[in-house]
Design a protein that fits this description.
2 copies of one chain form a homodimer. The first copy, chain A, contains 6 helices and 4 strands; from the N terminus they run ααααββααββ. With 150 residues, chain A is α+β, with helices and mostly antiparallel strands. The first copy, chain A, binds a DNA duplex (30 and 30 nucleotides) through helix 3 and helix 4.
Chain lengths: 150, 150
DNA sequence: TTGGTTGGTAGCATGTTGCAACCGTCGTGA
DNA sequence: TCACGACGGTTGCAACATGCTACCAACCAA
């Protein structure tokens, strides 16, 4: 049903990523998972999403290998949803979205939640796109090498 | 209509970013814009999206300050859509999604489009989340500092 | 001036979302 | 051990968004 190729399952990795995540709710679920949410109810309260939608999203995230369902850590019979390694690899995506939001949608003095380095409590360094040899790259410094060109 | 708060317009920058972009199509439009697409028809052919949807998405992206509509560069009476500085700031988001896709959705030998450093033609360095003092951070090394905690 | 391209709009069928009500299981306090 | 509330869903339905197709008005080249 959700399955393959909502978008062209093209050779473009961006499209496949987008397809794999599914929708915005899924991305916010992943964000909450990074922030420590594990239980159905935690996600539901945090997001305010309808339960049937949450059920469906959790299922596709598990099916897609982003989350996995494990026995609850408190010993109860319930289950919890935790990020797989593949899910954890979405970290830069979430951080990038967060930094973009911080820069463009908040006034200088407007409060917002902040992602900090646990050791020192400082906010993070801005993400940088770097070349193989470490030069900082702007969009104009890059080009898409299409498959058909190869 | 698209307007505010499809999601809680919470204090979370991720949610605001997601809200500002709108939907997946919009993100793929931005990706194409980075790849050099400028004209309505270019986006339409590249994405295969219905024209009414594309019209709506371009409009909201322009309204949101991600794209701007400028006179066509070839002197014709048509218009083109180009990234604003705010739109260009989405670069790390696109790169992060691309790298995630490359790592998890392609076999080692499977061909895919590639983003390369224009100067040298090499692929890019993987994005890293760094602390203020340059240590590399994993998700577990970070914490969300909630507004209410402040 | 005619015909094709560009950049849309309009109408309609279908799919997806969100809401609310319901329900079985689990856990806890008495 | 029993009752009651929390947890984690499922179901049905109404509303909304999506995508398809047809249409159309500029623009531009011959």
């Amino acid at each position: 049903m959700v399955a393959r190729t909502r978008f062209d399952d093209s050779e473009c990795p961006v499209a496949r990523s987008v397809d794999a995540i599914g929708d915005w709710w899924s991305l916010l679920i992943v964000r909450d998972a990074f922030d420590g949410s594990r239980r159905f109810g935690e996600f539901q309260r945090s997001l305010g999403v309808a339960k049937n939608i949450l059920t469906a999203r959790l299922r596709t995230l598990v099916a897609g290998g982003v989350l996995e369902s494990v026995p609850a850590s408190d010993g109860s019979a319930y289950r919890e949803y935790v990020l797989t390694p593949k899910g954890k690899a979405l970290f830069p995506v979430i951080v990038a979205l967060r930094q973009w939001g911080e820069q463009h949608f908040f006034d200088a003095d407007e409060p917002h939640s902040e992602l900090v380095d646990r050791r020192q409590g400082h906010s993070l360094r801005a993400l940088e796109v770097l070349s193989a040899d470490g030069r900082r790259l702007n969009p104009d410094d890059t080009a898409v090498h299409k498959v058909s060109d190869q």
